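Long-time lurker. I teach an intro course on protein structure, and each term I like to show students one example going from raw sequence to a predicted 3D structure in token notation. This year I'd like something fresh instead of my usual example. Would anyone be willing to generate the tokens for the chain below so I can use it in lecture? Attribution to the forum is fine with me.
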Amino acid sequence: MANPHRIDTPRGSIVTTPNGKAQLVWNPGFGQAYTNKFGRVQVFIDNGVIKGIEPYTPLRTSMMIKSLQLGSVIGSGLIRYLAPYAKAQYYRGRVAGTSTTGALRGRLWFARWKAAKGESFNASVKAYPRRQQND
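-- Reply from a regular --
Happy to contribute to a lecture. Here you go:
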């Protein structure tokens, strides 16, 4: 799928001052190159969030997790659940630690994952473009 976040380069401009004239010209490949770079980072973020919150997501039949995988368009920046009961589970589901399928599973799974792993995830997102340059 095409990247929904597109970077456009503005038209060039000519600036005239009493001291002279200057022309601003954008590199024609700038927009496409940075759209591709930011698109790859967004895919990395989306995949990381989906993989990260999976151990925190309530699990009975695994349909909630499948609903997340099917409802989200990787690279769009939107993580979405198709299950109609996802919102109710998120806000009013079991308290974390009371599930028989895992101690981490319970309500408010994204907020709890972000509190537990957010800083390390942010660091990995910041390091991702540098790793891509070295490959």
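Some talking points for your students: The radius of gyration is 21 Å. The chain has one domain: 38-134.
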